[in-house]
Amino acid sequence: MRKVGLFEAKQKLSELVERAVRGEKIGITRRGKLAAVIGPAQPNADLDKLFEGMEKIRRRAKPLRGTSIKELIEEGRM
Q: How far apart (Å, rounded) are the C-alpha atoms in residues 13 and 6?
């Protein structure tokens, strides 16, 4: 892991981010001590799977026939 000082990191942030995108980890030091690490972002959870799971839950939910939003809000405040 390459280490750079905070001042240099501020001056070269775009370059350091590009290097991180390519997989390199860069340590940022403050007063000679490691303060942070810039590295490649972790892939996000697959949003399609997340929304698919939410849709399944929505389908199983019971409809709120005969109950108004206002009644639900008031019930929650009691």
A: 10
Q: Give the residue from 19, 18, 37 showing the smallest Cα distance to 28.
A: 37
Residues 6+ apart with CB under 8 A from 2: 24, 26, 27
Model confidence over 25-71: pLDDT tens digits? Answer: 999 999 999 999 999 987 766 777 778 888 888 777 777 777 788 88
d(CA 23, CA 39): 7
- Give the pLDDT of residue 74: 82
Among 43, 13, 42, 40, residue whose Cα is nearest residue 28: 13
Rounded to an integer, what is the distance from CA 41 to the centroid of its chain? 10
Q: Which residue has the tokens 């026939």?
A: 65
